[in-house]
Design goal:
Elements: H1 2-6, E1 21-25, H2 31-39, E2 44-49, E3 62-66, E4 80-86, H3 95-104, E5 106-123, H4 133-148, H5 159-166, E6 169-179, H6 188-214, H7 223-244, E7 246-256
Helix pairs in contact: 3-5, 4-6, 4-7, 6-7
Amino acid sequence: MWLIQHRGLFSAPLLDLPNQRVIDVGCGTGIWAIAFATEHPASHVIGLDITLPQPKSKPPNCGFAVGDAEGDWAFATVPFDFIHGRMLVNSIRDWPRFMEHCLQWLKPGGWLELSDVAHRFFAEDGCSEEHAPMLKWWREVFQGSSRSNGIDTDGTYKHAQQMRDAGFTDVRERVFKWPVGSSWTSNQTEKAIGDLLGENLQLLIEGVTKTAIQLGQLRGITGQQAQALAIAAKSDVVENADKHGYYMHFATYIGQTPDTEP
């Protein structure tokens, strides 16, 4: 979905210079790091996550490291030209500290780019939770379990100011409206994203509900109630997403370090 929205792997105005050092924070399977390294063979790319990815193959200029995004990055010895992070909103607990950490690990003139989902769910027709089970599941289970896990559910919207507070310059913010389903929008990019998002939400509802129950992250509801909400939400997404005009906000933020050392 990000590839469709950005029409590429990133938004930051990078110069395709040789020997660029790039790190993908929270790299998951390593797909972004591998793709960037493949497109930019003169760069040196590291994917960082709490578990080591096991890709079937990777280019020689791509490697992986195990570590905490909010840790000391002991594996790194010199600063980076580009720090990339995507879908970190459920992983970072102290965003201001993380922004400062990124600033410290970037070369003068380097770029930070963060792309993430906002923890809000909307209905174009303004329907209430009584008529929109997906909205109720989102508030009761998704947001409730996130908050109990120390996640700032409005964290994504704060990234631009947090970047500025940390010392980044030329901070840019782009917020996208991503529909769930495709028939209620005429925008072709939104249609392509809407079809994928509708499919992914089915997996998200099931996975988040199961994890919240297993880890005791529910607030004010029982596991049985959470499961009932999940069943209703999945059905609602399939049957009524286009009727209500469900959508979410996804955003990309980029910021540059000052061109000279402080």
